Amino acid sequence: MKPLGIEGAWVETPRVFADGRGRFHEWFKDQGFRESTGQAFRLAQANCSRSVLGTLRGIHYASVPPGQAKYVTCVSGAVLDVVVDVRTGSPTFGKWEAVRLDDATHRCVYLSEGLGHAFMALEDDSTVVYLCSEGYAPEREHGVDPLDPALGIAWPENLTPLLSPKDAAAPTLEQAERKGLLPSFQDCLTYRGKY
Known about the structure:
Elements: E1 2-3, E2 9-12, E3 17-19, E4 22-24, H1 30-37, E5 45-51, E6 56-62, E7 70-76, E8 78-84, E9 96-102, E10 108-111, E11 116-121, E12 126-132, E13 141-143, H2 165-168, H3 173-178, H4 185-192
Antiparallel strand pairs: 1-2, 2-10, 3-4, 5-12, 6-11, 6-13, 7-10, 7-12, 8-9, 8-11
């Protein structure tokens, strides 16, 4: 695993073994994960999302503690996966980083508790699976507008974003900060140090 430019986020490009029968790869291995990140990953929930071309999901994050760390991959099709630093006090607050996830490279992205996550489907029927450290808890779930001009995420210009009503109504990063909805960088580091 290699760290991304935002503290608490990594990308993994697994070795893929192909032969006449198809392909095989390990998309998550606990020992390698711990060695690379210095963190443990506690699996509480696994999600699968299938999206039509242009679907934009996110930017989602959960209150810390406990937050919700995610380990994400695309098993069919392709998505532009985006990690956004929504942690107040972070040296990279408001910064984002994008990684193409697809069924050719089989890359995976890990984002620690407190980071925002979004993705856009680059093909029809793009299927994303992700492991979550905590189960879904609506009272702890939050969002930031993925089209917030202040963030300036470079979504593909040739696609019209398809958002859920909830994501379309999400506040900008500045509005979420003013309302006290964002996790603090220090709280995230402190919580992460507990396991």
